[in-house]
Amino acid sequence: MKKLLRLALLSSIPLFIQGCGSDAVAENQVNELSLSVIHSGMYLASGQSTSKGSRVFTSKQAYESELLNYSSELPKSINFTQSRVFLVDMGERNSGGYSIEIDGITEHDGYVLATVVLTEPGDGCMITQAITNPFQFIEVATTKEILIEEKIAQSSCN
Fold first, then answer.
1. Position 12 pLDDT exceeds 70
2. Which pLDDT tens digit goes with each residue over 26-54?
3. Would you say 98 and 153 are in contact if contact means Cβ atoms under 8 Å apart?
């Protein structure tokens, strides 16, 4: 009888452990956020070159001031009490064939993670022989800190 009780107790331990694990997953739940590319281009309106980088804007003034360097488009109406704008800039490139793609934006407990794919032309790709400077301004409905993760990809043109 003692052996049966001991066996029953031991066999129920994995159920308790599994239950604890599922609670931990629920606490760290990740949500996908929607995004809107509000400005993008291959050439800068200012004619100046930039370095590769990214920036997050939390105010209308900062966003509009930076947009002047990139585009002659009018600024979009952004409610910065509910949204943020971030800029992804590939910097000056010696040819065409470069592009930026947002792979996803996920909301975590204390921050938002934007995954950006920077694509360069692969071997055998037909490319424009001109200096380019790919960029994108992206609006995200969040007031949390935005972290930007970059991935590098190469076009396949074989």
1. no
2. 455 678 888 899 999 999 988 888 999 99
3. no
Query: What Å distances lie between residue 67 and 61, 76, 112, CA to CA?
Result: 10, 10, 23
On the 0-12 / 13-18 / 19+ scale of CB atoms within 10 A, 84 is buried
Asked if the model's pLDDT at residue 9 lies above 90, the reply is: no
CA end-to-end span of the chain: 72
Amino acid letter, residue 83: S
- In the block, tokens 């064939």 appear at 97
Structure tokens at 102: 């947002």
CA gap 83, 7 in Å, rounded? 56
> Measured between alpha carbons, how far is 148 from 133 in angstroms, rounded to an integer?
19
The Cα 29–Cα 19 span in angstroms is 16
